[in-house]
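Practice problem: predict the structure.
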Amino acid sequence: MLGAALRRWAVAAAARSGPRGLLHPAAAPSPAAAIQSARCYSHGSHETDEEFDARWVTYFNKPDIDAWELRKGMNTLVGYDLVPEPKIIDAALRACRRLNDFASAVRILEVVKDKAGPHKEIYPYVIQELRPTLNELGISTPEELGLDKV
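Answer:
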């Protein structure tokens, strides 16, 4: 559909720019020229799932991360169309502990539950994977705090 629209536009533009008449017909550009220009945007490199996870774990494991960077990172991560892997959440929770920011830790768990959406099996799995970290850091889940009933 986009290719057809580009071809129509290119033909119309060529017809407007050249002299008109039977002696000087406007030459129509090839359809390949219009399509080629529309596809130049897709040549970037793509990150694998493992590289994505490693990038975020490294981000949250920075020893000098501050509260603003933690919130900025979580905000960016939540903007993606995915539920973060437990190892990313683990790194974020450890960053919260280094910053002594209990409220952000609980908020991260709330966001994970929200991101899981209608897939009710995801959040319990994430909590199961994070249980040793939650116990080690002394972080309660929103359900343990009664925040799910508010």
